[in-house]
Write a structure and sequence with these properties.
The protein is about 20% helix and about 45% strand. It has about 150 residues and is an alpha+beta fold. It has a single domain, classed as Thiol Ester Dehydrase, Chain A. A six-stranded antiparallel beta sheet has the order 1-2-4-5-6-3, with helices on one face. A hairpin with a 3-residue loop joins strand 1 and strand 2. The termini are far apart.
């Protein structure tokens, strides 16, 4: 099962330019998935990070991990559980940025749900470009009511 960007838009509150993931593939319900992010030369962060030598900021990679996990979870649970809700990042642990992500590439984010307790979920993920590991992290998120 794969989710297109339009299907991801139905699951997440994020909108351009902050909707980072373009596709969710290899979905194992509430367990794991691969998110695809097409890192483009005209992305909002490229001109300033760094002029003449663009590098995708690590915090954007972490945000993409979080969006991928939120889409995986929203896709797997009852719609009433996430309707009128937001997913907030609670913590980021063990984030490592191993190689710079240079725009005009396909970033593959392999994410896995480690555990959940009520509205709190813990995940881990690894980011790759052409099979080379670029980053990895663990993080926690929670589902909260929209205000």
């Amino acid at each position: 099962m794969n989710l297109s960007k339009s299907q991801i838009l139905d699951l997440l509150p994020h909108r351009e330019p902050m909707l980072l993931i373009d596709e969710l593939t290899n979905i194992k319900k509430l367990q794991s998935a691969t998110a695809i992010m097409n890192v483009k030369k005209d992305a909002f962060y490229v001109d300033g990070h760094f002029p003449g030598q663009p590098v995708m900021p690590g915090v954007i990679i972490v945000e993409a991990f979080g969006q991928a996990a939120a889409a995986l979870t929203a896709h797997g649970i009852d719609k009433k559980t996430y309707e009128n809700k937001l997913v907030f990042l609670m913590s980021v642990e063990k984030a490592r940025f191993r190689n710079p992500v240079i725009p005009d590439c396909k970033l593959e984010l392999n994410i896995e749900s480690i555990r959940s307790h009520g509205r709190v979920w813990k995940y881990k993920g690894e980011a790759f470009v052409d099979g080379k590991r670029m980053a990895d992290a663990q993080w926690s998120a929670t589902i909260v009511d929209r205000k």
